[in-house]
Specification:
By secondary structure, this protein is mainly alpha-helical. Helices cover 47% and strands 5% of the residues. It has one domain. Strands 1-4 form a two-stranded antiparallel ribbon. A two-stranded antiparallel ribbon has the order 2-3. The protein is globular, with a radius of gyration of 16 Å. The two termini are 31 Å apart.
């Protein structure tokens, strides 16, 4: 919340955030500079799993679980979906929400579909159903490798 739902993933040994971590190597495959919106939207879905587990135990889930799941979803859409005009979720953004690594990697869009479906299931809000369909259509158009029976793992900034 404090950073518009742009989640920092890098910390020192005392758990102090390291927002400039790998600034000189921004495309590092596992420890990229900036925020990774695919993780944000994934964490939103995981919050919804906790929400559902609490409800299954007849416990009242804290309101922040749903609120923050929506916040992480919205931050991903705001910062990472087609920010440069081409469809797809960019791999990373800086702390102002501007794209850093513009390639489109397969897994974030799959996480996005899972979260959209989960949010639709919990809220009944049709915007999440619309996003689910938008992202599924994107996968059909760009990510599915019909010739080899698989998915493209990474696309350039123009898909």
């Amino acid at each position: 919340r404090n950073n518009h739902y742009r989640v920092n993933e890098h910390f020192d040994t005392q758990w102090n955030p390291l927002p400039d971590y790998n600034k000189d190597n921004p495309a590092h495959r596992f420890r990229a500079f900036g925020g990774t919106p695919g993780h944000w939207i994934e964490w939103g879905r995981l919050m919804l799993h906790i929400h559902a587990a609490l409800e299954a135990r007849c416990e009242q889930p804290p309101a922040w679980l749903l609120e923050d799941a929506k916040g992480l979803f919205n931050a991903t859409v705001r910062d990472a979906w087609a920010p440069d005009g081409a469809d797809g979720i960019v791999y990373t953004v800086d702390w102002e929400g501007k794209p850093v690594v513009r390639e489109r990697v397969r897994w974030p869009i799959v996480e996005a579909m899972g979260t959209a479906y989960a949010l639709y299931t919990v809220t009944g809000d049709r915007q999440y159903e619309t996003w689910y369909q938008t992202w599924w259509d994107y996968c059909i158009k760009y990510l599915m490798d019909y010739e080899n029976g698989s998915w493209w793992q990474e696309l350039d900034a123009d898909n």
